[in-house]
Amino acid sequence: MQRGTVWYTNGLLYLAFKSWAMAAANLITGVLIDLDYAADYLMQRRLPFRIKEFMNTYHENSLLKVRLFHGWEWLAVWGLAAWLTDWDLWVTGILFGFGQHLILDKINFGESFLCYSLWWRWKKGFKSEAIFRRSGRRE
Questions:
Q1: How many structural domains comprise the chain?
Q2: Is 64 in a helix, a strand, or coil?
Q3: Fewest C-beta in 10 Å: which of 20, 59, 103, 128?
Q4: pLDDT band at residue 4, thresholds of 50, 70 and 90?
C-alpha cells in the first residue's frame, strides 16, 4: 500500500467524522492487515520464526497465498459488526481500514477481484500458480 495514500485517507476520515478514534482504527488496521504474511510463514515453516528467512521468502514470493486477513469476506463481517454496534467509531474505522487496504492492493497489484476472496483461494488450494495471473506478484 502506498504510504502517502494512507495518510491522505486518514486525514480525510478525520475531517469528515471529526474522530481520532476512527482515523486511528483505520490506520492501525490498514497496516496490521499485512501481519497475515507472518501467519502464512508460520503455517508453512513453523517455529522458530527467523526474520531473515521470513524476509527472503517474502521477497522471493515463495509462500502460499493463504493471507488470512486479505479477503473481501472480512468487509461483510466488519460491516455487520459496525451496523450492530450502531457504527461505533473504532469498529467503523476497522471496516474502512480493511476496505481501503484491499482496494489499494487490488489497484496496485492488478490481480483479479477473486484473488482477494478467501473462499476462492481455498477452492484453488491456496496455490499461487492457480490464483495469480503472473508468478512473482505479491498480493
A1: 1
A2: coil
A3: 59
A4: low
Conformational region of residue 87, where left means phi above 0, alpha means psi within -120 to 50, and beta covers everything else: left
Helix, strand, coil percent content, the chain, rounded in steps of 5: 70, 0, 30
Cell 521477497, residue?
59
11 inside domain: yes
Residue 138 lies in a domain: no
Is residue 87's pLDDT more than 70? yes
Q: 38 CB contacts (<8 Å, ≥6 apart)?
A: 49, 54
CB count within 10 Å of CB 63 equals 22
Q: What is the pLDDT of residues 24-51, one digit of tens each?
A: 999 899 888 888 888 878 877 778 878 8
pTM over 0.85: no
* Range of the structural domain that residue 31 is part of: 3-131
Residue 97 contacts residue 9 (beta carbons within 8 Å): no
Which backbone phi and psi does 106 adopt, to 5 degrees? -60, -45
Residue 29 lies in a domain: yes
